[in-house]
Design goal:
The chain is α/β, with parallel strands linked by helices. It is built from nine helices and nine strands. The chain folds into two domains: about 5-135 and about 295-305, Aspartate/ornithine carbamoyltransferase (Rossmann fold); about 135-290, 3-Layer(aba) Sandwich (Rossmann fold). The strands form two sheets. It has a five-stranded parallel β-sheet, with helices on one face. Strand 1 (about 45-50), helix 2 (about 55-65) and strand 2 (about 70-75) form a beta-alpha-beta unit. It binds phosphoric acid mono(formamide)ester. Phosphoric acid mono(formamide)ester binds next to helix 2.
């Protein structure tokens, strides 16, 4: 007789989840924000494997696990793992599946997280794979948008900077495309233009978007200005990075005619694309956005492990 097994729930691409699941996770995030310490992970071990540097994603996942009463194994630098001896990603993930109930992984190669999910016997959460996807960031970005705008429908969203390599942009535009009437303005130099596959994705769904190379006038209509860092680590030569590294810098003086309700988001880290004088402006929301990461990641962990019903 055929054995019925429940498919494990990974989070690899934001498109793996439905709009109903986004909304469900955001409701859970609100519940965790109201009550962050819940012993849902007692007796469980989460492996946190970072093959690429991180501050926010790793620490907010680890904070979330601690707040849920779980335990953590893993590494923040793959140089301290047997990868340096030549162990493959396949073998690393097979091994870690033996130890942990859930794997949170960041890796520099696009597709590495999907591969890990295929190999692993436990759920895998993609904490960023190269220039591809960063779905947990997207869910915290959406939670931040709901908190500041009260909705995800009918938004005017400006995405600024490195739209080629910026994985947070790729995940976020796909998620927001599930809601009513988004209007996207993509502001990037030609070298960092949004890749064709994402322009096709929007065209196929009749989503309104425009591309620009300057942003001073465009931001006045925006509900959300989503700034991004030029991703130095993804360029093939230092010269190519030097040519675009200072392309857009958002300054306080540029915000005078923006909507009162507009909020500036940035996945962080920033280099110089938001001047420090913006930090005290009421439009700035990026540090609160990073705080929202803890509650959203508590929700993602609880959801992928099926630990909580709301
Ligand atoms: N937003 C983000 O992914 O930041 P880290 O690289 O510090 O994790």
């Amino acid at each position: 007789m055929e054995k019925l097994t429940q498919r494990k729930r990974d989070l690899i691409s934001i498109t793996d989840y439905t709009k109903e699941e986004y909304d469900h996770i955001m409701r859970m995030a609100a519940e965790f924000e109201a009550s962050p310490n819940q012993q849902l992970l007692q007796g469980k071990v989460v492996a946190v494997l970072f093959f690429e540097p991180s501050t926010r994603t790793r620490l907010s996942f680890e904070t979330a696990i601690n707040r849920l009463g779980g335990r953590i194994v893993g590494f923040s630098d793959s140089n301290s793992s047997s990868v340096t001896k030549g162990e493959t990603l396949h073998d690393t993930i097979r091994m870690v599946s033996n130890y942990a109930d859930l794997i949170v992984m960041r890796h520099p190669l696009e597709g590495a997280a999907r591969y890990a999910a295929e190999v692993a016997s436990v759920p895998v959460i993609n904490a960023g794979d190269g220039a591809n996807q960063h779905p947990s960031q997207t869910l915290l970005d959406m939670y931040s948008i709901v908190k500041t705008q009260g909705r995800l429908d009918n938004l005017n969203i400006c995405m600024v900077g490195d739209l080629k390599y910026g994985r947070t942009v790729h995940s976020l535009l796909q998620a927001l495309s599930q809601y009513q009437n988004p209007v996207f303005h993509f502001i990037a130099p030609p070298e960092l233009r949004l890749p064709e596959e994402y322009r096709l994705y929007l065209n196929e769904r009749d989503i309104d978007f425009a591309e620009h190379t300057e942003f001073t006038s465009v931001i006045n209509q925006a509900d959300i200005v989503y700034m991004t860092r030029v991703q130095k680590e993804r360029f093939s030569t230092p010269m190519e990075y030097e040519q675009v590294k200072n392309v857009y810098i958002l300054r306080n003086s540029m915000l005078a005619n923006t909507k009162n309700t507009m909020r500036i988001l940035h996945p962080l880290p920033r280099v110089n694309e938001i001047a420090p004088d913006v930090d005290a402006n009421p439009h700035a929301y990026y540090f609160e956005q990073a705080r929202n990461g803890v509650f959203t990641r508590e929700a993602i962990i609880a959801y992928t492990l099926g630990l909580k019903n709301i």
